[in-house]
Amino acid sequence: MESVDLYLHNAEQVVTCASREPKRGPEMAEPGVIGGGAVAVKNGRIVAVGPTGQLDESFTADRVIDCTDRSVCPGLVDAHTHTVFAGDRAAEFELRIKGASYLDIMAAGGGIVSTVRHTRAASVDELVCSATVRLDEMLALGTTTVEIKTGYGLSVEDELKMLQVIERLDRDHPCDIVPTFLGAHAVPPEFDGNADTYARCVIDEILPEAAAWYASSRFAARGVPMYIDVFCEDHAFDLEQSRQVLEAGIEAGFKAKMHVDQFNDFGGVAMALELGAASVDHLDVTDRAGIEMLGGSDTIAVPLPAVNFNLGMADYADARSMMDAGAVVALATDLNPGSAPCPSMPAVMAIACRYQRFSPAEALNASTINAAYAIGQGEVTGSIEVGKRADLLVLKSGDYRHIPYFFGGNPVHTVIKRGQVVDL
Q: Whole-prediction pTM value?
């Protein structure tokens, strides 16, 4: 018998989400369930997955977890977050309840710019401390890999400060992190009314420093990609400004992402696909033509339903049509202090099933394997397959569908990160 570090067996279901490429079309509805399943782990990697009756005869382990009446699934992947920030926007939450719109608040100097002021005033240590609390909660809720954006600094000094925080979090926290440079998140107060000049500042001043930082970072050393993102929207950046920023980032060696079609359709989907963007995120007002374009592309569509829920919106991104058109679809929290103060991927899955007509299997695939591919991690995590990182969840229930079916609680019993049981 082969000796391994960790062996999980007798699971009611091992839900593999297995795929060597992003799932689309009918594959989205296939969760890859192994009844009575088992998983063997050695040196932080999955070395076997299959029926308990077969694997029990092949493995002995230092630690054995009996998963009777429980299911096992991949660790969740949150492909769009703004986890590093200071302060909160609870006052704006009250304003929206009274009828103010998100764009109204932005135009009045609130919104993103409000968080920029708080984040600029915070030290690296303070930002690491507050973000660690958020990551701890996300991990307890099953998220094992996280994309984190900058974008609350909006100056050379403060964007670099955010990157330093992201790198420290990746070093010290169990979650694996993928960095995104979002210098074009909003127009900072010192450039008020002059988005063109600030976009030029991002390209000529902030981006080169971010690229130099990445080249010497732990991310580059480990082959973890860095992305560049831009918020293409009213009171942020128009299509041409967004193009200039993304093209400069691509030239610097970053991969492109784009906040697009949240409130207004400026043609951002077509441009993002032209630039070979890894993902386009939000997509609340994407029209039929845009959906068809996504269906014929490899760019991953990332609806962010916690935003719509938090803003009290009646309409959500038409993810059902995207999936039916053959698009690769992922889900994410968009965790941030303004539009989505939500750390929970299970909550996002619950909203997506109810308001966007995801099946539980589609929601799980969108939150694991497809989300991993959206941030360049699909070859190493996002599914239970031999050779991949042992990022696993033991659920409280024996049926994975209970993740979105029950909502408001935590469906996770045990988190396993890189083959180690996490002490939560």
A: 0.97
